[in-house]
Design brief:
Layout lengths: L12 H11 L10 H6 L13 E4 L9 E6 L3 E8 L2 E6 L10 H7 L6 E9 L8 H5 L9 E11 L2 E2 L5 H11 L7 E3 L7 H11 L3 E6 L9 E9 L3 E12 L8 E8 L2 E8 L5 H11 L3 E2 L23 E15 L2 E2 L5 E2 L2 E5 L50 E5 L2 E5 L5 E3 L4 E2 H10 L1 H4 L6 E3 L1 E3 L9 E3 L11 E6 L5 E7 L2 H9 L20 E7 L5 H17 L5 E4 L5 E6 L6 H18 L4 E2 L4 H4 L3 E4 L26 E2 L18 H8 L13 H12 L2
Parallel strand pairs: 1-10, 6-8, 31-32
Antiparallel strand pairs: 2-9, 3-4, 3-5, 5-6, 6-7, 9-10, 11-12, 11-15, 12-13, 14-15, 15-18, 16-17, 19-20, 21-22, 23-27, 24-25, 26-27, 28-30, 28-32, 29-30, 29-33
Helix pairs in contact: 8-10, 11-12, 12-15
Length: 699
C-alpha cells in the first residue's frame, strides 16, 4: 500500500495567491502570464467540462516544443471547486464525490474558485500507480488516494482554456495549495521523449503523455496536440457476455469482449485470466441486470474456436450481456482479424461510457526531431510515509473489510455511541484501526476483560470474560480459572483482526491484563492508580508529580498517562521478572510514601467509606486478572476521551482530561509517537529499588 505524508492545509493560501496573480499587472509575479490573464474577460463558473483527450501514437519522439508527463493508471477526474462546494466528476460526468470522499473532503477546505483536470490513483510502495488497488478502493485502509493535477481550466472568474499549456502550468504551480500530499502537481519534463519513455518502461509505468507546450485546451476533443505512448498495450473494452466451461467450478471461465466500430459492436476476443474467486462473485452480481437472450455482437463469435495454444479447448456455453459494462485489458498484440492476443483482465472501468469505447489505433509519427538535454530529474517521487487512514467509508451501513487475512463484518455503523457528541460506531472502528500500531504492543498476547457497550455510553453495559462460545475460530483464547473457581476462556489480542473483532462487540475501551499469556503470573509493569473522589484535577496532577519525585529519588523510571476518566496512572516497568505479589508489595511501599508526603487529600484505605472523600492511591490493581484502560484506549465518557500517555513536563496545572479525545489523539501520535514504549522494555531491579526506598524514606 502506498503511503503519503498528509499535512495540515492552509485553505486561505491558494486564494491569496490567486488574487495576487489575477489582480496585478506586475509581470515579476509570474513572468509572461499576468498580461495574458488581464486580457481574458470574466466568465461564469462552468457547471461541467468534458475533458480533452490524447491521441494514441506508436512510438516516442524527441521535440523541444513538447512536454512529457507520466501516464498515470487511474481514473481521470475534473474537480470543480466553488465557494467551498466541490464536484469531483469522472470523464463521463459521473460524480466521484462519495466514491473518493477523502479527496472531495480535502478540496472543500480550499477557498479557491477553480477547475482542475487530473487523475485519481493509488500509489504502490514504489510510487507507481496501482489500478487494481484503485478499482477495489472502498476506504483509506485500501491505500492512500492521490489526485495528480495536470491542468488548470478556470480560476476566479477567468476561463483559462485558451491560454497556452506552458502558461497554464506556470499558473497552476503558483496557485495550487501544496500543504497536503494527497493533491499533487503531475510533474512535467522538458526532456528527450525517447529517454523518458525508456525510463517509464524500466519503472513499470503504463506509458507517457506528450503535450505540445503551446497547445490550448479543447474540451471533449481527441487532439493530436496531446499524444499517449503506451509501454504495454492496454485498452478499455465492453463486456458482451461470459462463458462457462463444462465441468468448471468457476462462476465463469472467460469474458467476451467488444468495442464499437462505426456504430457497430465488434467482437475483439475473450479474456480468462486476471480474476480472483472473490472478484468473480462481485462481477457476477454486477452482470445480473444485464443478462439477455440476444447476442449483442454484430455476429455471434466462435468462442469455442481452437487456438495454437489450446488445440482442444473444453466446450463452453455463453451467457449474453447487454453491452453496458466497461473493463480494461492488457494484451500482447492484435491479430490480423482484430482479436486481442493473450489478453489479461486489469479491472472494471466505472468512469467510462460503453458507447465511447472504440478500438484504439495508433497514429504513426515522423521522428525527424532535434535532440534536447539529457533527462536529469526523477520521473516520480516515492510516496512519503503517513499513519494509517480510516478503515470504513462514511456511507455504507454494513461493510466487510479484510484484516490479517480474515473478513470482518461491521454493521449499524451510524449508531451513535456518544449521542451528545454525534460520535458513531463508525468513528469508534476508524479510531482503533488508525491507532492499532500504537496500541497493539500493550494488548498483544494479553487476556482481555471485555467491557461492552453495545448501545453506546448511555445504554446498558456489561463485562464479559468468557468468549469460549463466541470468538471466531481464528482468534486466540486463554483458559483460566478465576478466583471464584470458574473456568473461562479469555480473548487474547494478537493482531489487528482480533483487536477489531473485540471492538465490534461494543468494547469502547480496552482492558488488558498486566501480564502476557507466556508469563501469566508475572506482570510487565507495576501501576500506581490515582483515583480522586472530591479532589480537583490539579490535585491529581500534584499527586502524580509527588509519585514521580518519590520514584526519581530511588532511581526508578516512571511513565504517566491520563486515565481518560478522572485520574492518572503511573507505570513502572518490570519486564515480567517478578510476581504479582512482589509488584503489589512494591506498589504498596510507593503508595504509603506518597500518602505520607501529601496526607491532607490522599488515602491508601481500601474501603471507600474510610477514605473520607480523599484521593485513593491505589496499588491493589497489581493482582492477577485486574485491568485498567490501556494506553490510547478510548473511554465511555462524555467527550470520547482517551487514556493518553504524557511527557512528564505536560503534567502541570491546567492539564485537563478533555485535552485528549477521539478527535485529536491520532494527530498527537503523528507528532509525539509512542511515549509509553519504555514501559515494555528493560525492567527495574525491584530488590535494589526497595533497599533504596528504605534508605531514602525509612522503613
Amino acid at each position: 500500500m502506498a503511503k503519503t505524508k498528509t499535512k495540515k492545509v492552509d485553505s486561505t493560501a491558494g486564494n491569496e495567491k490567486a488574487e495576487s496573480l489575477l489582480g496585478s499587472s506586475n509581470e515579476e509575479i509570474v513572468e509572461g502570464i499576468t498580461p495574458h490573464l488581464e486580457k481574458i474577460p470574466e466568465s461564469p463558473f462552468p457547471e461541467a467540462i468534458m475533458p480533452m483527450l490524447a491521441t494514441l501514437t506508436d512510438k516516442p519522439f524527441d521535440d523541444p516544443d513538447w512536454f512529457y508527463e507520466v501516464k498515470w493508471d487511474g481514473y481521470r477526474a475534473l474537480a470543480f471547486v466553488k465557494d467551498r462546494e466541490v464536484e469531483l466528476k469522472s470523464r463521463n460526468n459521473k460524480s466521484f464525490n462519495e466514491k473518493f470522499y477523502p479527496i472531495h473532503s480535502l478540496l472543500r477546505t480550499w477557498k479557491l474558485n477553480i477547475v482542475l483536470d487530473g487523475e485519481i490513483l493509488v500509489l504502490n510502495e514504489k510510487g507507481v500507480s496501482d489500478f487494481g488497488a484503485l478499482q477495489n478502493w472502498r476506504s483509506e485502509a485500501d491505500g492512500e488516494l492521490v489526485f495528480y493535477v495536470f491542468d488548470i481550466l478556470y480560476l476566479e472568474g477567468k476561463n483559462l482554456m485558451q491560454l497556452p499549456l506552458r502558461h497554464r502550468l506556470e499558473l497552476l504551480k503558483k496557485v495550487l495549495p501544496t500543504d497536503d500530499d494527497r493533491v499533487r502537481i503531475s510533474k512535467v519534463f522538458e526532456a528527450k521523449g525517447t529517454e523518458f519513455f525508456e525510463a517509464a518502461g524500466k519503472m513499470g509505468l503504463e506509458g507517457v503523455i506528450a503535450k505540445r507546450a503551446d497547445s490550448t485546451y479543447i474540451p471533449d476533443f481527441r487532439s493530436k496536440d496531446w499524444l499517449k505512448i503506451k509501454v504495454h498495450q492496454r485498452q478499455e473494452v465492453v463486456i458482451g457476455g461470459f462463458t462457462k466451461n463444462d465441468g468448471s467450478s468457476k462462476l465463469f471461465s472467460s469474458l467476451l469482449l467488444g468495442v464499437y466500430q462505426q456504430g457497430k459492436f465488434q467482437y475483439v476476443g475473450k479474456v480468462g485470466t486476471g480474476f480472483s474467486g472473490k472478484l468473480q462473485k462481485q462481477m457476477m452480481e454486477s452482470f445480473k441486470p444485464f443478462i439477455t437472450d440476444v447476442c449483442p455482437f454484430v455476429y455471434e463469435p466462435d468462442y469455442n474456436k481452437p487456438s495454437r495454444f489450446r488445440p482442444n479447448p473444453p466446450h463452453a456455453t455463453a451467457t449474453w450481456l447487454k453491452p453496458e459494462l466497461v473493463c480494461e485489458v492488457s494484451f500482447a498484440e492484435v491479430t490480423s482479424d482484430g482479436v486481442f492476443r493473450h489478453p489479461s483482465f486489469e479491472g472494471m472501468r466505472e468512469d467510462k461510457k460503453a458507447s465511447d469505447v472504440m478500438r484504439e489505433v495508433s497514429t504513426p509519427l515522423n521522428e525527424a526531431v532535434p535532440e534536447v538535454t539529457e533527462l536529469q530529474r526523477t520521473m516520480v517521487s516515492a510516496p512519503k510515509p503517513v499513519p494509517k487512514k480510516t478503515l470504513l467509508n462514511p456511507k455504507d451501513e454494513t461493510q466487510v473489510r479484510p484484516i490479517n487475512g480474515h473478513d470482518l463484518k461491521f454493521t449499524n455503523l451510524s449508531k451513535l455511541y456518544w449521542p451528545d457528541e454525534g460520535i458513531s460506531k463508525r468513528h469508534l472502528f476508524n479510531y482503533y484501526y488508525q491507532v492499532a500500531e500504537y496500541i497493539l504492543p500493550y494488548l498483544q498476547d494479553r487476556p482481555q476483560s471485555l467491557n461492552r457497550f453495545p448501545n453506546g455510553i448511555k445504554g446498558k453495559s456489561f463485562y464479559q470474560k468468557n468468549v469460549k462460545e463466541t470468538a471466531p475460530e481464528w482468534a486466540e483464547t486463554f483458559p483460566y480459572i478465576t478466583s471464584d473457581g470458574e473456568h473461562k476462556e479469555f480473548l487474547v489480542v494478537t493482531d489487528e483482526a482480533s483487536l477489531m473483532w473485540m471492538i465490534s462487540l461494543g468494547c469502547i475501551e480496552v482492558n488488558p491484563w498486566f501480564s502476557r499469556t507466556q508469563f501469566p503470573d508475572n506482570p510487565d509493569y507495576c501501576v500506581i492508580d490515582l483515583d480522586p473522589d472530591k479532589n480537583t484535577f490539579d490535585q491529581v496532577i500534584e499527586a502524580a508529580n509527588v509519585v514521580k519525585r518519590v520514584l526519581d529519588a530511588i532511581n526508578v523510571p516512571s511513565y504517566c498517562k491520563t486515565s481518560g476518566s478522572t485520574g492518572m496512572h503511573i507505570y513502572i516497568p518490570l519486564a515480567a521478572k517478578y510476581t504479582y505479589d512482589q509488584s503489589q508489595l512494591f506498589g504498596r511501599l510507593i503508595a504509603n510514601i506518597v500518602h505520607k508526603e501529601i496526607p491532607d487529600y490522599t488515602s491508601v484505605e481500601r474501603f471507600i467509606a474510610e477514605r473520607k472523600g480523599k484521593m485513593y492511591v491505589d496499588f491493589l490493581q497489581n493482582r492477577p486478572g485486574a485491568t485498567i484502560a490501556g494506553p490510547y484506549s478510548l473511554r465511555p465518557k462524555p467527550g470520547a476521551t482517551v487514556a493518553m500517555p504524557l511527557h512528564w513536563d505536560e503534567v502541570k496545572p491546567g492539564l485537563q482530561m478533555k485535552d485528549f479525545t477521539i478527535h485529536n489523539a491520532v494527530s498527537r501520535l503523528k507528532t509525539e509517537g509512542d511515549l509509553f514504549r519504555p514501559v515494555l522494555e528493560e525492567g527495574i531491579d525491584l530488590m535494589k529499588a526497595v533497599e533504596k526506598a528504605k534508605s531514602v524514606f525509612g522503613s
